[in-house]
Amino acid sequence: MKVIVELRQGMLNVIKDSIEHVSISDKTITFRNESGDPLAIMEFQDLIDTGDAQYMFRAIDDTNILKAIVTADGRVVDFIISGYDGSGVDTSALSGSVGKLTSTADIRFNKLDWSEGASITITDLRIYVKQGT
After folding, report:
1. For 48-97, how does the pLDDT look when each residue is reduced to its tens digit (9 = 90+)?
2. In a domain, 133, yes or no
3. Which of 19, 22, 106, 118 has the most CB atoms lying inside 10 A of its own CB?
4. Residue 22 belongs to domain spanning
């Protein structure tokens, strides 16, 4: 299968624009349980183009290390990244699954049962548009 990198980059630019839209004051990744209740909210500054149709999240302190504190006990199952869809209402620009390290989830942790007060650290979080299906 032939993949056009420019097309993948264009798709990423749409996601980047949605996430960094001027109406979005707090850029966040919200980790949620099965009921949709937030377990942790991770703030970031923006996305940096790293080439090869990838963007890396830049933390508030200009590093590539994102941190959050767990605010409630629960089992994490998915995440939502704040964004703008053009409707005039803030919504999710990107969402996905959370799973164990051995899973095929979008973001993977070694522990999915989170306790209030625990800390989460993610280094070098990147997004890209998958090739193929």
Report:
1. 999 888 999 999 999 999 999 999 999 999 999 998 877 766 578 889 99
2. no
3. 19
4. 5-128
